[in-house]
Amino acid sequence: MKSLLLLVSLVLGTVAQANVQREGVINFNVVKAEYAKSHVRSAGHATVSVDYKNSTVTLFVEERHIPCAPNMMCAAVMPAPIEIELPIVKVETDSCGVKHVVAKRDLRPVDGALQVLKVVDPTLNNTCLISEEASATYESRFYSRMTSQEIVALSKLTLALDTLESLETSLAPAILVKLVEHPGFVPVPALKTVYVDVTGRVISTVQVYRNGLSAPKVTVLAQLTAEALKNLKEVTGAIKADAKLVDLNEGEPMCTDAPSTEVAVVINGKDVVVHNTSGCHEFSIQDYRAQMLKQLMEGFQNLTK
Question: Which of 25, 49, 132, 170 has the fewest CB atoms within 10 Å, i.e. the most exposed one?
Fold first, then answer.
């Protein structure tokens, strides 16, 4: 019990709001768009990817078909997708923790075009009550020798974060421990996850079930201090990969439609469940550290409510 209280007080007492530069790729789906005609003729599925590690932003748009004038014969060909990849030249973080990314390439000095992709990335916004919407703009400029004028085109995009799985693999270099809360029978069910990665970030995600899972809302709850992170790594590192769950309420009745929670330690890229609450029963591995991790992650979970 003393070791449990020591760990919890150490971790919870030494966290601070995080402002962490992310690494990896953040993938967004384009959910609404106003394309300039010179950019896209007939848009299909589109994505925007921000690669913080390699400093690039990519806009990918599938074209559905080539428009054909009325009463005209047109070739039935599959148009090539549009893919624009530009190097990031600037990343600024505003007072809410929202990233404003600018990617640009200027080939006008060699009779080319200026291309600019700007992305508003609020993925880890946690400091403002009103969260800014993810969005992007694509602007192109070139000098027309036919008209002796500069031709400017602007496309505006509304974005939504891609799947929670891509979030976990792209935001977190590796996850130490995570808690997943599955909803029971409720009017508006939501899948909630809290996890701590190897950099000490404590991140929560919420996905609501409305005609399928919504895009995850992501919040950085805290940043562990180096000492707290070291202690947590020692605890998770002592968990055995072959640990088995034991029913702590064996022989008692089960229930249905109740919420369930699962605490897992990630070992060699695989989830090892150390504690599980489901069917009104508790399941735990035979290691006192499981209860330590359960109480710790539930403490972080309470910060989201």
Answer: 132
